[in-house]
Known about the structure:
Shape: globular
Radius of gyration: 19 Å
Largest sheet: 8 strands, mixed, barrel
Number of helices: 11
Bound molecules: ligand C2E, magnesium ion
Helix content: 40-55%
Low-confidence stretches: 1-5, 10-14
Amino acid sequence: YAKQLGGDRIETFRPALRTDASDVFQLENDLRRALEREEMQVHYQPIVRLDTREIVGFEALLRWDHPKRGRVSPADFVPAAERSDQIVQLGLFVLERAARQLSQWHQSLPKSDHLFVSVNVSSRQLLRHDLLNDVKAVLSRNSLPKGALKLEMTESLLMENPEFAAQILHRLRELGASISLDDFGTGYSSLSYLQRLPIDTLKIDQSFVRSGNSPTQFVILRSIMGLAHDLGLETVAEGAETEADAEMLDELGCDLGQGYLFGAPMSADEIRKLMDRQNGEKTKA
Ligand code: C2E
Ligand code: MG
Ligand code: MG
Ligand code: MG
């Protein structure tokens, strides 16, 4: 099914990266020119409502088509980009692209006002750059409604400086962005901070979701879901790969799902086709 939806699954054909120092250096050098050489793209992965399977939004994910290495996984270049501060520029690129793309979908797709896009934010962006101004500019330039832009941040990022993070998050929300806690469950989940940080959504890490999980993982999932709902947080499960995953998540009361079952990350053109197909089915029904 996912294949039929197109998209990419880069880990399956990801080139082996040598790890000697000169190679890392070369990668960081190449990274510096990647934007101006237009080697970076933003792909989008569908996020669905688990009860109706309707697409309600997308996660924006960076893709780097390196002239020699082919497609390099963000798992390999994002850490390098964070070390060298390149992530600030890359992050702004993704934010601008994704906002413009969403605004275009809002204008051209039927009944699409509710669609959102979710953009990953790294700690350098939050702590050292003027994220507030960027977000404000991007939202107004593309006249995106409240809630249309979600910002994904990890727990470890927010825990570096919870008081400062809380202030920024409050202001981001005042601007109309909403906040998702990414990879939830993998860091030090300091549950008391969860209550104090202005967060809208928990994105449950795929390690708790993907099929083949133990009964313990099921118990963990169930309690995360209970916690989230008691705190009034929306839940998104990452890594739903099978029908069984999706059914279990729905039964546990998880709101949204993301994973190869519903579609891999894909280009904006492929998303467009997917949405046309979904809207066609709705009209027929
Ligand atoms: P993430 O934010 O947790 O993104 C979800 C990752 O899970 C994506 O990997 C996605 O392709 C993958 N995924 C989605 N569904 C499934 C599934 O059903 N099964 C499996 N096995 N994997 C699934 P991707 O695109 O390789 O990105 C990896 C990480 O790189 C992201 O994790 C995020 O931390 C980082 N990243 C990607 N784009 C950006 C960006 O624009 N900015 C920043 N700061 N980080 C980014
Ligand atoms: Mg993410
Ligand atoms: Mg994640
Ligand atoms: Mg992840």
